[in-house]
Amino acid sequence: MLTKKLGVIGGLGPLATACFMEMVVKMTDARTDREHIPMIVYSKPSIPDRTDFILGKSSADPCTDMVEIGKILEELGADFIAVPCVTAYFFYERLCREINVPIIDMIGETAIYLKNSGVSRVGIMATDGTVTGGFLRKGLEKYGLEVVQPSASGQKLVMNMIYNGVKANMPIVMDEFYAVKNELLEAKAEVIVLGCTELSVIHRDYDIGPGCLDAMEVLAQKSVLFCGGKIKNEYRKLIT
């Protein structure tokens, strides 16, 4: 029986949180219920939008709620905390300062995975908040990776898929996904990083083709390992 507990700051958005939990369970090499890692999930969809705050469209600070949830998870005995929302990593340093539980660095772990896979140039699909904030790009560049971002028109397609597709619980127009993916591949990206956890839902539900790395899959894999679980062989290689 595994005893290390994973706390999850969820609701960012709610479908992405559910997708993350499913990833953790499916990735775990377990034959009984008791061989899965314990999870404490606090899903609060009312947390203010991260992108709106980063872009200055809203003064409502989402980090306040995230810290509150993190402290509750701390009190409940979480040994590690996962935040399945890439845009929330704009607040990563502040969260680490205010919560006394290690928070898994999804961006850093994604960069390490790419470097260990021999990748040197990546394209990213992410929210306007993540692109404007620059923290995903900088986090990847810190490990020596070259980063390619979509054009302005490509970025509009990414935001449409995230906000008018997954967050709105509407079907995805996959021609939009492939248009952005092909643009990044034409810019010599070797791998496309899905740098928004709503895009992870698209990965789960649609055929995204080869050459993509889902950052939330990296987070799920590390969550299992940090909490003492084992990864199924089919989930050791994450690049499609």
UniProtKB/TrEMBL annotation:
<dbReference type="InterPro" id="IPR015942">
    <property type="entry name" value="Asp/Glu/hydantoin_racemase"/>
</dbReference>
<dbReference type="Pfam" id="PF01177">
    <property type="entry name" value="Asp_Glu_race"/>
</dbReference>
<dbReference type="InterPro" id="IPR004380">
    <property type="entry name" value="Asp_race"/>
</dbReference>
<comment type="similarity">
    <text>Belongs to the aspartate/glutamate racemases family.</text>
</comment>
<dbReference type="GO" id="GO:0047689">
    <property type="term" value="F:aspartate racemase activity"/>
</dbReference>
<protein>
    <submittedName>
        <fullName>Aspartate racemase</fullName>
        <ecNumber>5.1.1.13</ecNumber>
    </submittedName>
</protein>
<dbReference type="InterPro" id="IPR001920">
    <property type="entry name" value="Asp/Glu_race"/>
</dbReference>
<keyword id="KW-0413">Isomerase</keyword>
